[in-house]
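Hi everyone,

Forwarding the result from last night's run.
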Amino acid sequence: MPVQIIGMIQPHEVSETVSRKGPVVDPAYVRTFAQAHEYAGFDRVLVPASSTSPDTLLTVAYAAAATQKVKFLLAHRPGFVAPTLAARQLATLDHYTNGRVAVHYISGGSDVDQQRDGDFLSHDERYARTDEYLTILRRVWTETKPFDHEGKYYQVKGAVSEVKPLQQPIVPIFFGGASEPALEVAGKHADVYALWGESLAQSEDLVRRVRAQAAKHGRKVEFSVSFRPIIAETEELAWEKAAQILEATQKQQVQIAHSRGAGPQQSEGARRLLADAAKGDRVDERLWTAIARETGGRSNSTSLVGTPEQVADALLKYYDLGITTFLIRGFDPLLDTIEYGRELIPLIRQKVAERDALKAASTERKAA
């Protein structure tokens, strides 16, 4: 099946290698960044969330108004807005963007970050709350008569909404988290389960476990994986580029260590990235883990390194595991977006189409 390519935009220019430039909310940059993704051929762009970042819903609304075709993936944290209100907000945004919105629900992998917004639930409690939150969202979107809900985290009486999503029956649900409580929620609710860029062995294991959880509910889940591709004309130049990125990241980490706090990220996803990094900076030939190691497994921080052809071939191995969505973003955010559109995305789509054609031909021969 055709792959979906997702990018990522932020309200200002920043990365592991780039100190923040411009104001915290930079409308001109957001407009240019979103339009660059559309021009480069991305299917969708993620707007990430944290306890200190600008509002994601408003950023998506602005970026959608500046584009025509590219879709959006809005990061959203359950627990800070009532699910009934969130359901109406997201359904309304779905109409204003002409059905271009999906939502990535983040239960929270860092106690410190959650507590900045007044959330003092434990890790497992946050996922239990997300389960209840998504249950209510789905009911608001799909039920036509008022309903009551009496749960551990939410109580509503006579809940009903005039506005339903333009995309029927719901706004698509992306979900991440590698702990057992997270996998249970994913199996029950996720349309797309999002992995960070792990090794092939670890990715295959996680795909298998999520599928098993989904099967308990009679459901099927699609999969997404996130990487930071580093490409160049030759493999040697690509690895030289990676070395330069690591050097710049190390300098940047010294500057931001005090503001972010020392030590690795707390989440199970971070632990899994660091487990890959413990095997060495290079895993599975192209998977580069040095930035994950350097940053404590914060965010999607692993790369595939090589020529565009080599990186596309590496991504195809994840496609063979059943992963049909690739989230790719660079360390030089805007320029890498343009380069991916010119050098990498067309190759990925071509190779997937060729792989699908070979499988279809093989199936026909066996049936003949």
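DSSP finds twelve helices and 14 strands in the chain.

Cheers,
N.
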